[in-house]
């Protein structure tokens, strides 16, 4: 009998007796926790992921054909297949410029999901002799030159070293897998730039390829990446180089840091709105819970009066009321955090593509810490809503309440 009347059993019994009410209150807390967890994770990814992507690219300046800045951005950060071409002559001219430390070129080929290819994928041709962007990610997996019919696959490309992949009607052996980068490199295939160019021109797609007028079919490329000398003002370097070469080569140009900063600033607005929404949901949750608990208190005055008559103290009644709010909030907070984590885990690729984010995770430890913090905030939501009612709860006159029910 004493076990059945313990504070915990009374809390469980009262919650179970009103399942619909419990569900509504818990759902309110769960919605807040989902919004707060998702907003915090996305905001942290925006603040750290974009800058990390800039560091991982290893270049300071990017030159592409006019009108294709967004395409190369999507290709490098998210691996979206794209193709565009420019004159390779720019590479040699940039090497003699003051403030330029290293220059390398890349060639982008977008495969199709057809009989010619295993599946759609971005092929990136690079120059092993001058490259400083791709090769650092290959050092641990491939310490030799690639053969004619070998490629290096991104870590998320299906297939293991020694297996084959079909590209433009030809079979290539996977020499190695790239180390994880968190960028578009993870879903791309890499080969030597001259081999990639021949592959395209020899394929059926190459017959339909429209090379811009004036470009040499034997040397065309897609982009040029520049590493500035230490201490060089990158913005001034970009302005000087663009003024000299932009019109002559019909170029789009950008400083990698500016490109990342532009992405970050736009997405930060989204993250701020999300955080404001989460805060508004939390305030609304506290207000609604306070209103609902006020109604509940009016409905249960007789119940609390009986508890006082049978010997329960004011503190016991208050703890019972707060315990119900705490347990309700606990269920909602747990469900909200778990559901948000599952949603982010299942749809993280879709979220990255929609928000133009590089595919960089924030780590299990940080995610767990955020989840714990949001859970605690959700947990205190119910008890916080109860605080204004505790004084009123303690002033219940058991005798008068019982007379009202006669």
Characterization of this structure:
The protein is of the alpha+beta class and 406 residues long. It folds into 2 domains: 187 residues, no CATH class; 183 residues, no CATH class. It has 14 helices and 9 strands. It has a 9-stranded mixed beta sheet, sandwiched between helices. Strand 5 and strand 6 form a beta hairpin. Helix 2 runs antiparallel to helix 8. The two termini are 28 Å apart. About 1% of the residues have low confidence.
Quick rundown:
With 406 residues, this protein is α+β, with helices and mostly antiparallel strands. The chain has 2 domains: 7-51 and 263-404, no CATH class; 67-249, no CATH class.
Break the fold down into its secondary structure elements and pairings.
Blueprint (H helix, E strand, L loop, with lengths): L6 H11 L1 H39 L3 E5 L3 H10 L10 H7 L4 E11 L11 E5 L23 E4 L10 E4 L2 E8 L10 E5 H10 L1 H5 L14 E6 L5 H16 L1 E5 H44 L1 H9 L4 H33 L1 H7 L9 H16 L1 H14 L3 H7 L2
Parallel strand pairs: 3-7, 4-6
Antiparallel strand pairs: 1-8, 1-9, 2-3, 2-8, 4-7, 5-6
């Amino acid at each position: 009998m004493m076990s059945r009347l313990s504070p915990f059993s009374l809390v469980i019994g009262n919650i179970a007796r009103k399942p619909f009410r419990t569900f509504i209150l818990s759902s309110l807390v769960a919605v807040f926790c989902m919004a707060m967890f998702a907003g915090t994770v996305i905001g942290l990814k925006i603040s750290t992921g974009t800058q990390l992507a800039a560091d991982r690219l290893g270049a300071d300046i990017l030159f592409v054909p006019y009108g294709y800045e967004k395409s190369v951005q999507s290709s490098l950060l998210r691996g979206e297949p794209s193709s565009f071409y420019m004159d390779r002559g720019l590479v040699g001219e940039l090497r003699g410029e003051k403030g330029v430390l290293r220059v390398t070129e890349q060639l982008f080929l977008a495969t199709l999901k057809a009989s010619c290819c295993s599946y759609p994928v971005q092929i990136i041709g690079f120059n092993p002799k001058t490259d400083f962007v791709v090769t650092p990610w290959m050092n641990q997996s491939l310490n030799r030159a690639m053969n004619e019919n070998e490629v290096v696959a991104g870590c998320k490309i299906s297939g293991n070293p020694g297996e084959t992949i079909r590209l433009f009607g030809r079979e290539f052996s996977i020499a190695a897998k790239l180390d994880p980068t968190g960028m578009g490199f993870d879903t791309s295939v890499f080969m030597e730039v001259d081999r990639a160019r021949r592959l395209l021109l020899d394929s059926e797609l190459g017959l339909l390829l429209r090379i811009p007028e004036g470009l040499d079919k034997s040397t065309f490329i897609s982009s040029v990446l520049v590493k500035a000398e230490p201490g060089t003002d990158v913005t001034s370097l970009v302005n000087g180089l663009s003024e000299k070469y932009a019109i002559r080569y019909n170029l789009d140009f950008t400083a990698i840091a500016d490109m990342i900063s532009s992405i970050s600033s736009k997405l930060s607005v989204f993250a701020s709105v999300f955080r404001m929404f989460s805060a508004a949901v939390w305030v609304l949750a506290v207000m609604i819970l306070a209103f609902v608990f006020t109604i509940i208190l009016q409905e249960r005055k007789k119940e609390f009066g009986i508890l006082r008559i049978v010997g329960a103290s004011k503190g016991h009644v208050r703890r019972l009321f707060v315990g119900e709010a705490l347990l309700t909030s606990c269920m909602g907070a747990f469900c909200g955090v778990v559901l948000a984590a599952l949603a982010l885990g299942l749809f993280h690729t879709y979220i990255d593509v929609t928000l133009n984010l590089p595919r960089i995770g924030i780590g299990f430890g940080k995610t767990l810490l955020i989840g714990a913090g949001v859970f605690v905030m959700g947990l205190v939501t119910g008890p916080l809503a109860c605080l204004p009612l505790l004084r009123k709860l303690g002033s219940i006159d058991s005798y008068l309440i019982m007379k009202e029910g006669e």
